[in-house]
Predict the structure.
Amino acid sequence: MDVEGATPRLTDRDLADRYARLYGPFAVVMLLLTFFPYMRSGEPKGGITPHEFGSLWREAFGPGGDNEVATFGAALFVAAIVLVLIATFVPPPPVLTATIAVLALIIVVMVWTRPGFYNTPALTDAGIADIAIGYALVVLTITHTIHTVLRRSARGDRD
């Protein structure tokens, strides 16, 4: 302790542990949301049945899936979830948290804009939740990155 009665100094491991408590739930929620459809299926009109949207995995790899955008999205989700899980169990360097932020932002933009559609379908509650979770993850990882960099620069660390 620096001053009598002051709180003890926070170590890098303590800082990582505090953020890790948040990363774990993000990984679980992100994974669970991939099993719900992000887009609402349309109503039949004039005897024409519109496309029935499924989960990310069905759109990317299921029957009739063969969707390059959904396959790219699935790869982004897998990468983001793996990196968030790593950050949960290992003190992440700033480059890892910044990478998670970039992946989460790309996912948010893809879900929000729904590329590849001429008539953009409406989002389901899972799609809206995914956007909210993505933005929250971006804020968390940027905050963690800034916090880590400021602590290291104050101590004079170079790694």
Remarks:
- The chain is about 65% helix and 0% strand.
